[in-house]
Design a protein that fits this description.
Blueprint (H helix, E strand, L loop, with lengths): L4 E5 L2 H9 L7 E5 L2 H9 L8 E6 L3 H4 L9 E4 L6 H20 L2 E3 L2 E4 L4 E4 L2 E4 L2 H12 L6 H8 L8 H19 L6 E3 L2 E3 L1
Parallel strand pairs: 1-2, 1-3, 3-4
Antiparallel strand pairs: 5-6, 6-7, 7-8, 9-10
Length: about 200
């Protein structure tokens, strides 16, 4: 699993302290020393908000007035200095909330996939999914090319010599049928001679 990233903005002192401890942290860290650095990173989409947050002082207009930023991605520190354990608690709670919120709403094609509730929805219709079905959708969505059965078998089922390829085909067939029956969509997962893709 990819580590989440904490981006410090104009908080070099805090960044430097955590940099000394980076090998034991459960997250990665970046430092943006000024508005120009952060503006360029935001403009160039160098900050991936699916797995990162920004920590800044609460009076920062660059963050408050930026259309690219969801305020849930920002942790404002009101008072400095701050006790180390309180800082770590704030960061960890914010990262957990961020990850939960991110997983609760992934847009895939015209659908919303909620990993937390294991549902996929479109136009006020909702379909309950199994954990394997979620894994299949996520894996196919992350890969831009069709995926063959043996790849699905090794990546989603972590390959078992006892697992037969028709097990994978059956899971994908059932998932495609559920989506067709509920949403009248035969093209959510497409099959070709090169494999399956979204």
């Amino acid at each position: 699993m990819t580590k989440q990233i904490v981006n410090f903005f104009e908080l070099s002192e805090l960044y430097n302290i955590l940099f000394e401890l980076k090998d034991i942290l459960s997250f990665d860290i970046n430092n943006y020393q000024n508005k120009k650095e952060l503006s360029n990173a935001l403009k160039d989409n160098k900050i991936n908000f699916s797995n990162s947050i920004i920590i800044a002082r609460s009076n920062e207009n660059l963050l408050l007035n930026n259309d690219k930023l969801d305020k849930k991605n920002i942790l404002f520190i009101d008072k400095l200095p701050i006790q180390f354990d309180k800082l770590m608690d704030k960061i960890n709670v914010h990262l957990i909330q961020h990850q939960y919120n991110f997983k609760s709403k992934l847009n895939i094609k015209n659908y919303i996939l909620n990993i937390n509730s294991r549902t996929i929805s479109k136009n006020n219709k909702e379909l309950k999914l199994t954990e394997k079905e979620i894994d299949i959708i996520l894996f196919l969505n992350e890969n831009n090319m069709p995926q063959k059965i043996d790849i699905l078998q090794s990546q989603i089922w972590k390959y078992s010599a006892k697992l037969e390829t028709h097990t994978v085909e059956t899971h994908v067939y059932r998932l495609r049928k559920k989506i067709k029956d509920n949403f009248n969509d035969e093209n959510f997962i497409t099959s070709s001679e090169n494999g399956y893709f979204i």
